[in-house]
Design brief:
291 residues; alpha/beta; six-stranded mixed sheet; two-stranded parallel ribbon; 14 helices; 11% strand
């Protein structure tokens, strides 16, 4: 359920190995799945009627609540006897509450956000961060293999999402630093292609740095991880940090830059589009972040 930037390639990989019933709020996103032999569901309820295990790759907790009619008799009817796998990124506290409601309605719950962006989703090389009771986790784990190169069991809910936010804190500050490096180099007349080659040859190179630098050199900021979604992640990380009294000075600076990039109208770009906020600051045109 949810065949967007991430969910569609994940479902396509899964459909090569098991029978998949797919549903999305925007039906046009289902056409590649239908072409791949998946069954297309007209209504969300049809997925639960047909499937024992239901994977949710929806935008946020509000969307999950709307789709599943949480808090109503329909929610209880849908999830009873089903294993619900939450694979999107939400606040850990939200996931913990959803687990309580699913179990109370007679269902089973697994938390399994994934680390990786659209290209790993296409390649089937995501990393799953699972949490939940041993029985449901053991049932779901083999189903993730077509989508993920590795799965980790992080503990009880919501430790999977907490782990995801910790990983994303590193990713966000890494990409922000890389964008700042590119902006610095360009402002000093350096060739970005040469910068890419130097960094690719050195000890700091990674799949992330190679991928994002290639996008900057090509001027191709098409979405792998949408900037607005990454900003949403900064909100979740910051909120969890404030609740625990954890200092996150690097994240706080990165978050402000992502907010500024959104205010400039770049929320639909890939996350490395944060370079637009850095360029605006270099030009003395720092926008109001709206937050």
């Amino acid at each position: 359920m949810g065949t967007g930037v991430m969910g569609q390639p994940m479902a396509l990989n899964l459909a090569r190995h098991v029978d998949v019933v797919a549903w999305n709020r925007s039906p046009e996103r289902l056409r590649p799945l239908a072409d791949a032999g998946a069954t297309v569901a007209r209504e969300a309820d049809d997925v639960f009627d047909a499937c024992e295990v239901v994977l949710l790759m929806l935008a946020n907790g509000q969307v999950v609540d709307e789709v599943l009619a949480r808090g109503t008799a329909r929610f209880a009817r849908l999830v009873a006897g089903r294993t619900v796998v939450a694979m999107g990124t939400t606040a850990p506290s939200y996931s913990a509450g959803l687990e309580v409601d699913v179990v109370a309605a007679g269902g089973r719950y697994v938390e399994s956000p994934v680390s990786g962006s659209r290209q790993p989703a296409l390649d089937g090389t995501l990393v799953a961060l699972m949490a939940g009771d041993a029985g449901p986790v053991g049932l779901v784990r083999p189903l993730l293999e077509p989508m993920c190169r590795q799965t980790f069991v992080c503990g009880p809910v919501p430790s999977g999402l907490t782990m995801k936010l910790a990983v994303n804190l590193y990713l966000i500050t890494l990409v922000t630093g890389l964008a700042e490096t590119a902006e610095y180099a360009e402002r000093h007349g350096l060739d970005l292609a040469v910068l890419r080659d130097v960094l690719d040859a050195g000890p700091m190179a990674s799949d992330v740095s190679r991928g994002k630098l290639a996008k900057l050199v090509a001027g191709d900021l098409a979405v792998q991880a949408r900037l607005a979604d990454v900003r949403y992640n900064t909100d979740l990380i910051a909120a969890l940090a404030r609740g625990s009294g954890t200092a996150t000075p690097l994240l706080d600076v990165a978050r402000e830059l992502f907010l500024e990039a959104e205010a400039l109208g770049h929320g639909g770009l890939d996350m490395v589009g944060v370079i637009h906020a850095l360029a605006a600051r270099s030009d003395g045109q720092r926008p109001t972040s709206q937050r």
